[in-house]
Amino acid sequence: MNIRTATINGVPKELRVRDAARGFQFSESIMPAADAGALRARIEKVAAVASVHASVVDREARFPCEAIDAARAARLLGIGVPRELGGEGLGAADVVDVCYALGKACASTAMIYAMHQTKVACLVRHGRSGAWHQLLLRRLCAEQLLLASSTTEGQAGGDLRNSSAAIEGEQRIALERQATVISYGEAADGIVTTARRASDAASSDQVLVAFLKEDYTLERLNGWDAFGMRGTCSSGFKLIASGLREQIVPASYEKIHSHTMMPFAHLAWSGAWAGIAAAAVDRARGFVRKAAHRSGGALPPGAAHLTRATASLRTLRSLIAAAVRRFEAASADVAVLESLEFQTGMNMHKVSASELAVATVMSAMQACGLAGYRNDSEFSIGRHLRDILSSPIMISNDRILANVGAASLLGGTPISLRD
Ligand SMILES: Cc1cc2nc3c(=O)[nH]c(=O)nc-3n(C[C@H](O)[C@H](O)[C@H](O)COP(=O)(O)OP(=O)(O)OC[C@H]3O[C@@H](n4cnc5c(N)ncnc54)[C@H](O)[C@@H]3O)c2cc1C
């Protein structure tokens, strides 16, 4: 589409140009400037609330209720739902940018938002043809419902493509699942979970099912006293759910996973991680500025680490922006979405983004030295470092690298840098 000439309801669309201090370079997010500005103001309002409560959320390992309430008040939970169902029809670029803005303020809030939006994206793309899911999406927008995700089960770790617990029943269905981790399970209004299609189905023959709060009970299996991402409240639960067969998303989970769940999750998560990294760089910049001011303009010895942190943040942001563009370009073409190259690329995006995010926060901490290491300093990087260290293990990078290993044997290196 020619973004310079296109219109929405007669209003010229504008390419949302990168604001280096705020968002990503958007090539796909095409909104009238007034709408873009209004969205930015809504995001900033929520980020400000998240920022105020971030330390206490971390200290007490509690759900960031103020920030999520603010997101509800700003109507940010349904932005990815099509307009005809009550949402705003925004794409991955906008959602990822919200994750980034929230990540700068409070990592847990950003990750909760990222997980919620990933579930919304799965329902929008694969469930919206069904009356039940349409109604759910309408309710989600009207009531600003928050959806949690259950994929990790028993001892299977990050093996999302196999489920143990099966859907039982015919018209009325039931599911009982040992969910090792369900972030904000108790605070959510619904849980979107994977399951084996039927008791006689193979573990890889999976479906995705949406249950609303009234459909299930949660029995706590363990708590969440974690190193970082403490506000995600990612406890383990026995999930006992029942509902109607229509609550199962019609597409196979295999399709949902490759078309939406995996790429969208990796983009949204990396947006949140880039936000954490950006916040750490801001602190490091503040530290170096203060030190330079005190010594008559001479940079402190750790300033080189700030240069490194700034450069790796820039690379991280470019990586995410390129991956978002790639996803949005592929979204219209099933063959591209299912290609080995796209699937490997989106998996490797997760690995690269998490590694760069960790490296950026580490460099920021080195720039601050002791002031970054201390918890009681205005330049402390402790919370950012603890939060960002969740990124390589949230679906282990080792698992991903092992899974895509065979793909590295195929093909060759491109002839030109432009290929
Ligand atoms: C903050 C946070 C929030 C989360 N929220 C949710 C949620 O809401 N819902 C949900 O379902 N899950 C959630 N998870 C879980 C997440 O999706 C993964 O399932 C989980 O992080 C993987 O757990 P694991 O490290 O125990 O398991 P594993 O994947 O088994 O990894 C364990 C270790 O084994 C190694 N390993 C694993 N596979 C391989 C391999 N093939 N080759 C080499 N080494 C390998 C890795 O080194 C890894 O460190 C969350 C995780 C985090 C960190």
Strand/helix succession: EEEEHHHHHEEEEEEHHHHHHH
User: On the 0-100 scale, what is the average pLDDT?
Assistant: 92
Range of strand content: 5-15%
Give the ligands present: flavin-adenine dinucleotide
The number of distinct structural domains comes to: 3
Low-confidence stretches: 1-28
Detailed description of the structure:
With 419 residues, this protein is an alpha+beta fold. It has three domains: 139 residues, Butyryl-Coa Dehydrogenase, subunit A, domain 1 (Orthogonal Bundle); 100 residues, Butyryl-CoA Dehydrogenase, subunit A, domain 2 (Beta Barrel); 157 residues, Butyryl-CoA Dehydrogenase, subunit A, domain 3, CATH 1.20.140. Helices cover 49% and strands 13% of the residues. It has twelve helices and ten strands. The strands form four sheets. It has a three-stranded mixed sheet, with helices on one face. Strand 1 and strand 2 form a beta hairpin. Helix 1 crosses helix 3 and helix 6 packs antiparallel against helix 11. The protein is globular. The N terminus is likely disordered. The structure holds flavin-adenine dinucleotide. Flavin-adenine dinucleotide (FAD) binds next to strand 5, strand 6 and helix 12.
Keywords:
419 residues, Butyryl-Coa Dehydrogenase, subunit A, domain 1, Butyryl-CoA Dehydrogenase, subunit A, domain 3, three-stranded mixed β-sheet, binds flavin-adenine dinucleotide
Produce the secondary structure layout.
Layout: E1 7-8, E2 11-12, E3 14-15, E4 30-31, H1 33-60, H2 65-73, H3 92-105, H4 107-127, H5 131-143, E5 147-150, E6 172-182, E7 190-196, E8 206-212, E9 216-222, E10 235-244, H6 253-294, H7 303-330, H8 334-337, H9 340-368, H10 370-373, H11 382-388, H12 397-404
Parallel strand pairs: 5-7
Antiparallel strand pairs: 1-2, 3-4, 6-10, 7-8, 9-10
Helix pairs in contact: 1-2, 1-3, 3-4, 3-6, 4-6, 6-7, 6-9, 6-11, 7-9, 9-11, 9-12
Bound molecules: flavin-adenine dinucleotide (FAD).
Flavin-adenine dinucleotide (FAD) binds next to β5, β6 and α12.
